């Protein structure tokens, strides 16, 4: 597997590793794709809302450590609003790219940063706890990467339909049964959605088979 020199540098000498004592916010996220976890800690200036310090702990692979390292560099010194604009696509560009099967590792790192920022904003009354709905489900689907090409399944138009009614989620996926990643994608969708108490049942449909 080919890694850029930037990825290797950040993996071997990661920046901002560790735990912050008494952080103003923190978040832990896990990747359903591989079972790895990342935690991020923030210190935020209450007046200016600038991220004055940020650290991370990763139980992930080289790509995940390198991404967490580079995005913590990017976020430090930025306001919360500026840091919210950091995306996994930007992180990958900064790293000089990642192999498609490793894109989910970058998504996990960026997702953890965004969760820590969101936790800060909720705790400080800067935003409401978002209402659960169809948009929440679509946001989760945007975190699921099709490993062959390293893009998310929404962007790749693999999601044909999402419905949510009375705890029932229905998702139609445009994936045929000869697609070797189909079962993994369905499993990952279930993993991503099971943390929501609002969801009681998930039905995933494919064009050429019964629902799973
Ligand atoms: Fe788990 Fe990369 S394989 S974070």
Can you describe what's shown?
This protein has helices at residues 5-12, 62-75, 80-83, 88-94, 103-123, 134-141, 182-193; strands spanning 25-30, 37-44, 51-58, 145-146, 151-152, 159-165, 168-173, 201-205. It is globular, with a radius of gyration of 18 Å. The two termini are 33 Å apart. A 3-stranded antiparallel β-sheet has the order 1-2-3, covered by helices on one side. Helix content is 35%, strand content 21%. Helix 2 (62-75) packs across helix 5 (103-123). It is built from 7 helices and 8 strands, in the order αβββαααααββββαβ. 35% of the residues are buried. The model has no long low-confidence stretch (mean pLDDT 94). The protein folds into 2 domains: 5-123, Alpha-Beta Complex (Sufe protein. Chain: A); 134-205, GMP Synthetase, Chain A, domain 3, CATH 3.30.300.130. It is of the alpha+beta class and 212 residues long. A hairpin with a 6-residue loop joins strand 1 (25-30) and strand 2. It binds FE2/S2 (inorganic) cluster.
């Amino acid at each position: 597997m080919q890694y850029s020199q930037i990825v290797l540098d950040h993996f071997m000498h990661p920046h901002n590793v560790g735990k912050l004592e008494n952080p103003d916010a923190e978040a832990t996220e896990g990747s359903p794709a591989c079972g790895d976890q990342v935690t991020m800690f923030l210190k935020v200036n209450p007046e200016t809302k600038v991220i004055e310090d940020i650290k991370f702990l990763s139980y992930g692979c080289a790509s995940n450590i390198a991404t967490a390292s580079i995005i913590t560099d990017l976020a430090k010194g930025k306001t919360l609003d500026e840091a919210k604009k950091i995306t996994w696509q930007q992180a990958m560009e900064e790293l000089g790219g990642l192999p498609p099967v490793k894109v989910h590792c970058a998504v996990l790192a960026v997702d953890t940063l965004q969760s820590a920022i969101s936790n800060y904003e909720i705790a400080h009354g800067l935003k409401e706890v978002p209402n659960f709905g169809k948009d929440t489900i679509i946001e989760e689907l945007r975190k699921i990467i099709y490993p062959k090409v390293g893009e998310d399944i929404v962007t790749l138009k693999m999601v044909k339909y999402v419905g949510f009614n009375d705890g029932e989620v229905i998702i139609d996926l445009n994936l045929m049964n000869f697609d070797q990643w189909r079962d993994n994608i369905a499993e990952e969708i279930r993993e991503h959605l099971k943390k929501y108490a609002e969801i009681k049942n998930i039905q995933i449909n494919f064009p050429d088979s019964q629902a799973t």
